[in-house]
Amino acid sequence: MTSPAFTLRPATPRDVPAIVGMIRELAEFERLEHLMEATPERLAAQLFGERPAAEAMVAMADGEAVGYALFFPTFSTFLARPGLWLEDLYVRPAWRSRGLGRALLARVAALAAERDCGRLEWSVLDWNRRAIALYEGMGATVMPDWRICRVTGERLAALAAGGDASSES
Fold first, then answer.
1. How many domains does the chain have?
2. pLDDT of residue 2
3. Residue from 6, 68, 90, 135 carrying the catalytic annotation
4. Closest by alpha carbon to 55, among 114, 95, 5, 2?
5. Nearest Cα to 88, choosing from 24, 5, 3, 143?
6. What are the residues facing 120 on neighbouring strands?
7. What H or E segment, with its residue span, contains residue 29?
8. What is the mean pLDDT of each run of 10 residues along the chain (169 residues)?
9. Which one, of 64, 54, 53, 88, lies nearest residue 14 by Cα?
């Protein structure tokens, strides 16, 4: 999906610094910049290394990346089919309300359909009403009964070692 104002394409290694910059902007928007550890080197290895962990799509306007979608494969045992998890969907503020977010989401959905995925899933912060309205308007269901569980850092190491991850502060 394209418009005269922007185009969408798969990310290339040259896009990595711009994507990391937008990840930083997203972290600030979500008030999570204290969790930001991404660097161009680290992201490039995960997108374009020997075993890529994720893929990215960029929205280009006037020769610069102004939005991106980053996603990776999942699997549903109930469906016995693969899926895609949309980790990030971000459009720079000056380019919002021009259809870029909708176009990026539709492009990832098209990839999911092409790959015979049973699902396209993502999370959204409960206070981001604008995003929720966009997603619901595009046919998504916000799952009220599900919560994301996460283990990181020292707790992940403790759990991996067979210990009790909950005992650490």
1. 1
2. 45
3. 135
4. 114
5. 24
6. 84
7. helix 16-29
8. 76 98 96 96 98 98 96 98 98 94 96 98 93 93 91 92 68
9. 64
pLDDT of res. 133: 92
Is 2 within the bounds of a domain?
Answer: no
Residue 152 one-letter amino acid: T
Is 83 a member of any domain?
Answer: yes
Residue 86 lies in a domain: yes
136: containing domain: 7-167
Tell me the residue length of the chain.
Answer: 169
Strands (E), the chain: 7-10, 55-61, 64-76, 81-91, 119-122
Neighbouring C-beta atoms of residue 64, cutoff 10 Å: 12
Dihedral sign for Cα 134, 6, 52, 44, please.
Answer: negative
Contact yes or no for 103/1 (Cβ under 8 A): yes
Q: Is residue 128 part of a domain?
A: yes
For residue 112, what are its two tokens?
Answer: 């999911």
pLDDT of residue 165: 63
What CATH number has the domain bearing residue 33? 3.40.630.30
81-91 and 119-122 as β-strands: parallel, antiparallel, unpaired? parallel
Active site residue 135: yes
* Helix/strand/coil for 31: coil
